[in-house]
Amino acid sequence: xxxxxxxxPLMSPKLLTPQELAAVRDEFAAAGQRLVFTNGCFxxxxxxxxxxxxxxxxxxxxxxxxxxxxxxxxxxxxxTRPINNEEDRAEVLGxxxxxxxxxxxxxxxxxxxxxxxxxxxYAKGGDYTVASLDAGERxxxxxxxxxxxxLPLVPGKSTTGILARxx
Length: 167
Hints:
By secondary structure, this protein is α/β, with parallel strands linked by helices. The chain contains 7 helices and 5 strands. A 5-stranded parallel β-sheet has the order 3-2-1-4-5. Helix 5 (111-117) runs parallel beside helix 6 (135-143). The longest helix has 13 residues, at 18-30. It is globular and about 50 Å long.
């Protein structure tokens, strides 16, 4: 008897394609609601991430998190990262009540995603300023009319700090 291949568990029902998310955004806009968009590696989820995501969610009616794929994390953070693969990171984020939608992207910048999804609000952590955002990303956000919000960091809470302590 030939055995069927094992099915891989679904990462998260919140995980959608950029095109599906563009349709979600249009539904929100038609209902007078606002979609908040953020992105990041979220390699080792910690309290700083959770507080940031909760604050981002409070800015609108739903929160979309774009998770850097493994190749882009390596390009941004170095050859020893990510610690957790993109599927695992998306699944963990999807388990958070404050995260409504997820997508995984494989470029270093979210410029193309912004152009496709057209979020009403873009949130970024306090290690950035509007001026220090990537010029292409900032241009795409401005072109789609997204409000850019910089949220405060949680002092002393970072993946890099955690890795330094355990390394």
